[in-house]
């Protein structure tokens, strides 16, 4: 009845970066058993090498130098290897690499050095990459779980410390709750369209709208539930409540990684599902897709809540947690813009540019907190920053760069991201969202600058330890932030060929 | 034959009960069970849609299989996390999961 | 790669100067000071070369440099710099003020010296960037970047309330400029390019046009950003705080150059991009300008803190500049541009003066002084020249600028004569508060014991005041030389304004 595809039909070559990473993680799982406890740095190195190799392949594929596999589609149309996939791969792998570097010394000094940490991190990176490559709603779901389940475990990695365990449980319960929404939404879309394959969904939704049948409502509810499920992953209001608690409780290196990786995966999937699959869900001809209004309203709420509540925070991790909520809002504006016909590609480019800029900046900021944090997870309050500039001038300078980048000051990567997001928002006529966006950026300047002022303008005992791996991570992130800010064409050239159109 | 909408109704009911359970219960195990209800509601939908709309293809069925495999993985991790907390506090009441905390 | 334009050299030199400060660990404080001063002096020297190479007959941009920075299918962003008659004097003002303020920092700044000079050079770099940028993206980049060094200068080296002042300065100006960012993006999306000359060309050829209401919104988005920077009444409240708390050199730069970015923005962007809206809004802006003139003068008179007095006088002086610009005629705009330079020089001088008093007595209150003339004759003599220049005594620079502005506003077709009358009242008020200040601080009996043994100027102080005094006389006596450079550009601009306004009236 069904044809069994042969290996060559699978087009495994096209999926090389993610396959390598996943296989590498599986092999490492076994190899790790033979590495003695006190020499886990070998595992860390092997992980870094695995991620590095995968990154090289992704970059090769991105630059077009080498063509992996034949054609874009792989695994019976489940996997799509296009420019978006490549750029998301690069973003996720860079984040993973920074995550390993940030974690190494922290695990060492808190006596948590276990190989599973790195392996879980690799698996979740593979999940984030798969989300960007999803050509089928099934993949969206599986990739989401592949991304999330390791993150639940990583959040609780610092057991028996209560805060860490508690944050893991919260993250798990709410995360699983959100996947319930996602699957239910997918089921409804499947019911309305008879398929889970995104190009076919795209086609079928156009038909559903044209017929004006009751299935229209199924699609509508389904899209709403999928938005809720993915909105949870990216911490969009009103699905954000887990963020501050989880980020505060989880080990800081984990937060450095997951605050970025979860967003990369979540937004990649949002772009795939909404920009690609549901872009034909246009209820009146000529109008933007029906989900656009909802998404930009969510974006506005997210920006407002994230930025306003961040003002009153006194713990650095919590402050940055709200800041990540706010940034989800900015990226959501671009996702909303994808609802305007003809802007899908530009919007996807803006999302990717923002994500890469954000990856360097946010991972760097949390890396600095890791450097400050004491072994008992204290010393992460804003007050702990006092006088940091005179003791650790380079660390403080790096933190200042990250804060300015998060504010969106020019010559940092953050500005480039905002520039493209607001640009596409204006193209899509989302003026209200753009205005709220710039005004909340001004609000955000207050709390980001407060970090800078604590470091530079106040006297105090602020101190930090930067062992080599961590110092390299912070250095790479800071230089990346500045270089991408000064040479924005690096980002825009990388993203410019991203297109969501179905190739033939 | 039983019409499709009946299945959908049951699924929607299960989903709602599950959602209510997650929001109202404070025991972590109970929340986990409620989440399972939600996932299974989705599964009923998937299978029903498959049976009524596309019996010739396996898509829906396979998806349902995926869902419960993944759900099992999730539960394994979740129970481990909960047991961890239980060992320390002798309680699984997720009082601290304060959904409305700012 | 083609030849590198002189503008690029002047522009990038301060940034090059930052590198040794950042990376050479072994520099002594002494070397750092002199290194920074040398870099800024060389920059000034090269900018004089800019003046020498400038062709006064050409209205458009000169010494242009154009490199693609970001290109995509639908738009381009360029590194695009050049100078014309409007910006050349502001570039020179920047490079002139910077060595002076660096020299003036030699003594007062003893803490975190390296960081201080890094920020000074970054400041110079960003300010020159604002004046030479011909691409909206590039302009916006440097417009925002100027905030950062100033934020640190106020926040680290300022006086007691410095943190409040620094934050207020940053947030105020940033909130305004973000709306401009949206307007820039909108313009760029419509025009398909961000470079200014190309947008002008498209506007001229009618390829790009706005509906009147869009034009007004865009005008306002730009105008709010600039008006906060100027600052125009009622958006001025950040200015007294920032000025009073900033270190001396910070105040000098703030008054000397940063405020001019706002007025420059009006001339560079608002007038040529939105001529019709400019005409519509001209009376309102002129009204705010005049209120600013009177208000600034009035509040200045009420101050007992010298630095605050000077700060409020800035509001008054920049009111004149705004009035001149929105007279929308040749003499108004030329007077406005010259007055920007004048204000930079004389108010910069006033702030230096206040700084020198503060260094000696550690107070800025007027009643702590009195009879300083007897103790410090040299200082007092130079101060008198600066004070007189600031109040607009004929023969000195302030007079030329203010007089031309009044000529312009009196002859303006868009402004009623009442604006000119009110502004003239402002000049009288300026004389009142300035002389009152001079009288209290410098004249009278030397009755306070602490003031009797005040040392006169040391060499750094002397050499930071002398160039200012020279420029006060030079502009006062040879104004024609300065006007000559802006003539063609301004005439071109006014011509364009006139044409579009008539065309609009004819429609």
Describe the structure.
Chain A is mostly helical and 504 residues long. Chain A is built from 20 helices and two strands. In chain A, 72% of the residues lie in helices and 1% in strands. In chain A, strand 1 (73-74) and strand 2 (79-80) form a beta hairpin. The mean pLDDT of chain A is 88. Chain B is mostly helical and 102 residues long. Helices cover 76% and strands 0% of the residues of chain B. Chain B contains three helices and no strands. Chain C is mainly alpha-helical and 507 residues long. Chain C has one domain (6-506). Chain C has helices at 6-23, 29-53, 88-105, 113-132, 136-145, 147-157, 162-191, 196-204, 212-229, 238-245, 248-273, 275-301, 306-325, 330-361, 372-375, 377-391, 397-410, 417-442, 459-477, 479-506; strands at 62-71, 76-83. In chain C, strand 1 and strand 2 form a beta hairpin. The N and C termini of chain C lie far apart (47 Å).
> Helices and strands of chain A, in N-to-C order?
HHHEEHHHHHHHHHHHHHHHHH
Sheet of most strands of chain B: none
Helix count of chain B equals: 3
Number of beta-strand segments of chain A? 2
Query: How far apart lie the N and C ends of chain B?
Result: 50 Å
Unreliable parts of chain B: 97-102
Helical proportion of chain B?
A: over 70%
Number of strands of chain B: 0
β-sheet strand percentage of chain A: under 5%
Global morphology of chain A: globular
Low-confidence stretches of chain A: none
Greatest interface by residues involved: A-B, 40 and 48 residues
Backbone CA Rg of chain A: 22 Å
Q: Please tell me the overall pLDDT of chain B.
A: 84
How would you characterize the largest beta sheet of chain A? 2 strands, antiparallel
Give the tags.
heterotrimer; B: 102 residues; mainly alpha; Helix Hairpins; 76% helix; 0% strand; C: 507 residues; two-stranded antiparallel ribbon; globular
Short overview:
The complex is a heterotrimer of chains A (504), B (102) and C (507). With 504 residues, chain A is mainly alpha-helical.
Give the secondary structure arrangement, pairings included.
The complex is a heterotrimer of chains A (504), B (102) and C (507).
Chain A: H1 7-10, H2 16-31, H3 41-63, E1 73-74, E2 79-80, H4 83-109, H5 115-133, H6 137-155, H7 162-193, H8 198-211, H9 215-234, H10 242-249, H11 252-277, H12 292-311, H13 316-337, H14 344-372, H15 388-391, H16 393-407, H17 413-427, H18 431-456, H19 468-486, H20 489-495
Antiparallel strand pairs in A: 1-2
Helix pairs in contact in A: 2-3, 2-5, 3-4, 3-5, 4-5, 4-11, 4-14, 4-19, 5-6, 5-11, 6-7, 6-11, 7-8, 7-9, 7-10, 8-11, 9-11, 10-13, 11-13, 11-14, 12-13, 12-18, 13-14, 13-17, 13-18, 14-16, 14-17, 14-19, 16-18, 16-19, 17-19
Chain B: H1 4-24, H2 28-53, H3 59-89
Helix pairs in contact in B: 1-2, 2-3
Chain C: H1 6-23, H2 29-53, E1 62-71, E2 76-83, H3 88-105, H4 113-132, H5 136-145, H6 147-157, H7 162-191, H8 196-204, H9 212-229, H10 238-245, H11 248-273, H12 275-301, H13 306-325, H14 330-361, H15 372-375, H16 377-391, H17 397-410, H18 417-442, H19 459-477, H20 479-506
Antiparallel strand pairs in C: 1-2
